[in-house]
Amino acid sequence: MTAFALFGLEPALDIDDALLAERFQRLRAQFHPDRFALGSALERRLAVQRAADINDAHATLADPMARARLLLELRGVSMDEAATVQDPAFLMRQMDLREALDEAADAPARERLRTEVQGLWAADWAALGQALQADEAEQARRQLQRLQFLRRFLDQLPRPAPG
């Protein structure tokens, strides 16, 4: 059973977060191991396993990148996290972004860079959705690789100090 099926959702890149949260709470309550405390050893083990499956499925669906990887896996495409993008234009974009990060000496410059990269993310996310919708698995895989880079880049981009 896929994470989507477990939560009664159609496989899709964008999902309703509120609906996911509501179904997660319902499933957690329904299959919480404490409800099976008086059951047989088998029932208790199955409840623990079911709770773990629910938590894992929720973690996958709640994370857009994990959800996108799952959609590709459902189409028979596996993602190698360590694989590099073989697109020369994107490789140049990566180099330009790294250079811009090195040159972003102050907080306003880093925030402008963050805004730029978030825009790239949004465009690549839309392109991933289009590739999945068109059932172009290889193009979707390439888009997801680009998004992985952008996510790591955003994670590495220093945030301004609160104040």
Topology diagram in text:
Layout: H1 3-6, H2 17-30, H3 41-62, H4 64-74, H5 88-103, H6 107-133, H7 137-156
Helix pairs in contact: 2-3, 3-4, 4-7, 5-6, 6-7
Descriptive keywords:
163 residues, mainly alpha, Helix Hairpins, Monooxygenase, 2 domains, 70% helix
The CATH superfamily of the largest domain appears as HscB, C-terminal domain
Number of helical segments? 7
**Overall pLDDT:** 89
Number of domains: 2
Uncertain residue segments: none
Q: Beta-strand level of the residues, as a percent range?
A: under 5%
Provide a compact summary of the structure.
With 163 residues, the chain is mainly alpha-helical.
Structure overview:
This protein is mostly helical and 163 residues long. The chain has 2 domains: 3-62, DnaJ domain (Helix Hairpins), CATH 1.10.287; 88-156, HscB, C-terminal domain (Monooxygenase, Up-down Bundle). The protein has 7 helices and no strands. It has helices spanning 3-6, 17-30, 41-62, 64-74, 88-103, 107-133, 137-156. The model has no long low-confidence stretch (mean pLDDT 89).
